[in-house]
Amino acid sequence: MLAPLGVRLVTQADLGIAEAEEPHDTFVENAIAKARHCARATGLPALADDSGLCVAALGGEPGVHSAYWAGREGTREERDARNNARLLAELARHEDRAAHYTCVMVLLVRPDDPEPVIAEGRWTGEIARAPRGANGFGYDPLFYLPERGLTAAELAPEEKNRISHRAIALARLLERLRETT
Fold first, then answer.
1. In the chain, what percentage of residues exceed pLDDT 90?
2. How high is the pLDDT of residue 181?
3. pLDDT tens digit string along 43-91?
4. Residues near 52 by beta carbon (within 8 Å), at least 6 away in sequence
5. How far is CA 22 from its chain centroid?
6. Which of 51, 111, 124, 144 places its Cα 20 to 30 Å from the Cα of 95?
7. For residue 105, which phi and psi values (nearest 5 degrees)?
8. Nearest-angstrom CA–CA distance, 145 and 125
9. The dihedral of CA 162, 165, 166, 168: what is its sign?
């Protein structure tokens, strides 16, 4: 999403940096922890996010636990399938299908940066009654966008990258950066 701006990002995997722990109960705290982890390991500025699906009828679950809500075992695809199955099972007795994706994005200039740039994006929708679509990952096959009549997994990747919670958070982060320079 930053390529059109001429920004080159290097992933922590490309640098051989292990994934950071996500021990916190909020998206903000986890995003900061991830950014500090990478900035400490590299000495470079770090951009990190923490994202998840929040479902109203489930009191905001799976929330910050979205990726591993149904367990840590298996491949990402296997975890995604279990997470989606659990979501459908938990919502079976609820009529309210309202949900939103949240993304908190954090930029640190240095590891001990006392003023991280923080931005949040929220993408509202509903939980479908059955998965649809082959694009995306995680809960995308169940995240239904009523105004489009599609799930996030039915969107073209370019469209998703333009309207998603991460796109919204990134746009807000860029606005914040413009305000400070």
1. 85
2. 65
3. 999 999 999 999 999 999 999 999 999 999 999 999 999 999 999 999 9
4. 27, 62, 63, 64, 65, 66, 67, 101, 102
5. 13
6. 51
7. -110, 135
8. 5
9. positive
Q: What are the two backbone dihedrals, phi and then psi, of residue 123, each rounded to the nearest 5 degrees?
A: -125, 115
> Encoding tokens for residue 39?
């900035």
Supply the residues annotated as catalytic. 50
Q: Is 46 helix (H, G, I), strand (E, B) or coil?
A: strand
Check residue 9 and give its pLDDT.
84
Q: How far apart are CA 67 and CA 44, in angstroms?
A: 27
DSSP per-residue letters across 63-75: GGGGGGTT-S-S-
Burial 127-141 (b: 16+ CB within 10 A, else e): bbeebbbeebebbbb
Q: What pTM does this model have?
A: 0.91
Angle at 71 between CA 70 and CA 76, to 5 degrees: 95
Give helix then strand counts, H and E, for the chain: 4, 5
Tokens 């807000």, located at residue: 172
DSSP 103: E
The tokens describing 17, both together, are 């940096």
> Exposure of 114 by Cβ count < 10 A (0-12 exposed, 13-18 middle, 19+ buried)?
exposed
The Cα–Cα gap between 52 and 59 comes to: 13
Q: Which domains does the chain have, with CATH numbers?
A: 3-180 (3.90.950.10)
